[in-house]
Amino acid sequence: MDFDDTPEDAAFRTEARAFLEAHAPRKTGTDADWSRGAMAEHPDEQAVYHKRCQEWQATLYDNGWAGIAWPKAFGGRGGTPAQQIIFNQEAARYDVTSGFVGAAQHLVGPPLMRHGSPEQHARHLGPLLRGDELWCQLFSEPGAGSDLAALATRAVRDGDEWMVNGQKVWTSAAQHADFGILLARTDPDAPKHKGITFFIVDMRTSGIDIRPLVQATGLTHFNEVFLTDVRIPAENVVGEVHGGWAVARTTLASEAGMIGGAGQSSTFDAVLALARECGRTGDPEIRLALADVYLRERILKFHQYRMQTAIMHKRGTPPDPSVLKNFFTQSLSKRVELAIALQGAAGMLAGKDAIHDGFWQKQVVAQFSSRIGGGTNEVHKNMIGERALGLPAEPRSDKDVAWRDLPRS
Ligand SMILES: Cc1cc2nc3c(=O)[nH]c(=O)nc-3n(C[C@H](O)[C@H](O)[C@H](O)COP(=O)(O)OP(=O)(O)OC[C@H]3O[C@@H](n4cnc5c(N)ncnc54)[C@H](O)[C@@H]3O)c2cc1C
Q: How far apart are CA 385 and CA 388, in angstroms?
C-alpha cells in the first residue's frame, strides 16, 4: 500500500481543505452534528435533515466540487477517482453530508452516463448532481429481490408510450422522489435476463401509488409502490429495449461499492467510551470483544486503503466490493451488539429512557437493513465465491427458459 499523494494530489488536497474550511463546520462526533440526522424519527426532523443534505449538495455543485470524477460534459469536475477519495477523506472531518441525495447519484449517475441518450444526459444529470431533483430505485418486487431478474412488473408498448402495471417494494425515499429508475418486463417470452427494459419514470405520473412502510426503528425509509396503467414516454427508455439488465448491472455494481465504503456514526472509539461509562472495561470477556471490534475497524480501513492504492496508483488488485460490503456489515453488527451488551439490563430500554437517548438501540435495530440492502450477505458470499475465489458458478436451470414458463411465487 502506498498512501502518499502525488504532487498534483497534494495540491488538490490543499484546495479541498480550504474549500471545506470556508464552507463547513468541523464535526463534534456527538448528536450535535446535524449530519447524524439520518436516524431522526420525527417527520419534521427528517424533513430538516433532507433539506440540509440537498443544501450541502447544492453548495458542492455551485462551487465546482460535486461529481469530482464525473466528466465535465456531464456537469462534473472532470477529476480522477483518486481526487474523489481525497475529497471524501477531507470532508469526513466536517459536519456535512449529502445523505440520500448523494446515494441516489451513485445509483442513477453511472447508468445514465453510460447508457443514456444525449437528451437524457442534458435533461437529468445536472439537477441530479446538484440535488435539485430527487430519485428512487424501483427494482425490487415482492417476488424479485435477490433474484431480481425474476421481476414481473410489465411494460407494454402503446404508440409513443409504454404502459406499466405491477408492484415494487422496499423503494427507498420514493415518497420524496421526483424521478425513479424502473425495471419492467417487456418481453415475457425471452429468458428472464433478456426481456427487461430500464426506464426513467416521473414519480408524479398518474397511476403511481406510494405507500410508506414503517420500520422497527420508527423510520419510514422505504415504500411499497403500486403502478397501475402508468404511461411512460418511449424516449424514457435507457439503453436498448429488452436490454435493461446490462443497464441495471451498472447500478448494482455502483451500489455495493458505495455501501462497503460508507462512513459510520458508531465507531470503536464510541464503543470504548461507552464501556468506560458503563464501568465494564475490567471484564475480560468485554475486553476480548472490544479487541475484536477494534481489529475489525482496522481491517476494514486497510481494505479501504488497498482499494485507494489500487485506484490512486493504478496498481495492485483491489478487494472485491462484495468482500468490503460483507465485512462492513458484519463488523457493524458486532460493534452495535457489544454496545447493547455493555449496558446490561439497561440495554433493553429505548428512546429517551436509554443511555444516549437510545442511539445504540436504534443502531442495533437498523443493522439488518445494511445486511440486506444492496444485495444480502448470502448473495454477496456467492459472488465472492465466484469472482474473488474463482469457484464454479451456482448451477442455473432457468438460463434459457422463457420467463413466462418459469415457476413463480
Ligand atoms: C434498507 C434497504 C433499502 C432498500 N432500498 C431499495 C431500493 O431503494 N430499491 C429497491 O429496488 N430495493 C431496495 N431494497 C431491497 C433489497 O435490494 C432487497 O431486499 C434485497 O435484494 C433482498 O431481496 P428480498 O428482500 O426479496 O429477499 P430474498 O431475495 O427473498 O431473500 C430471502 C433470504 O434468502 C437468501 N437468499 C436468496 N437467494 C439466495 C442465494 N442464491 N443463495 C443464498 N441465499 C439466498 C437471502 O440472503 C435472504 O436471507 C432495499 C432493502 C433494504 C433493506
A: 6
Domain limits at 85?
Answer: 7-97
**386 counts as catalytic:** no
> In the predicted model, what is the mean pLDDT of residues 110-133?
96
In testing the pocket of ligand 1, which one of 100, 137, 140 has its CB within 8 Å of the most ligand atoms? 140
Please report whether residue 380 resides in a domain. no
The answer to whether residue 1 scores a pLDDT higher than 70 is no
Grid coordinates representing 217 are 426503528
Examine the pLDDT at 103 and tell me if it is beyond 80. Answer: yes
User: Which DSSP helix (H) or strand (E) runs through 246?
Assistant: helix 244-260
Ligand 1, atom 30, lies closest to the CA of 145
Residue of the CA atom closest to atom 32 of ligand 1:
146
Structural contact between residues 153 and 142, judged by C-beta atoms closer than 8 angstroms: no
273 part of a folded domain: yes
Q: Which of 97, 127, 153 is the last residue of a domain?
A: 97
pLDDT confidence band for 196 (50 / 70 / 90): very high
Neighbouring residues of 368: CB distance < 8 A, sequence distance ≥ 6: none
Q: Report yes or no on 223 lying in a domain.
A: yes
Residue 404 in any domain: the answer is no
Q: Which residues make beta-bridge pairs with 213?
A: 222
370-373: long-range pairs with CB below 8 Å, 24+ = 370/259, 370/328, 370/329, 370/332, 371/329, 371/333, 373/170, 373/172, 373/259
State whether 280 and 362 are in the same domain.
yes
pTM: 0.91
Domain count of the chain? 3
For ligand 1, the distance from its centroid to the CA atom of residue 367, given in whole angstroms, is 14
Q: Which residue has the cell 470503536?
A: 268
How far, in Å, CA of 191 to CA of 109, rounded? 28
For the chain, the first-to-last Cα distance in angstroms comes to: 48
Reported as a single tens digit per residue, the pLDDT across 143-159 is 999 999 999 999 999 99
Rounded Cα distance, 384 and 207, in Å: 40
Nearest protein CA to atom 3 of ligand 1, as residue: 373
Sign for the pseudo-dihedral over CA of 195, 200, 205, 209: positive
Residue with the larger pLDDT of the pair 157 and 265: 157
Contacts of range 354-361, beta carbons closer than 8 Å, 24 or more positions apart = 355/274, 355/277, 355/278, 356/31, 356/274, 357/31, 359/31, 359/39, 359/266, 360/266, 360/274, 360/336
Q: Are 328 and 296 in contact (CB under 8 A)?
A: no
Residue 257, pLDDT score: 57
| Closest ligand 1 atom, residue 141 Cα | 26
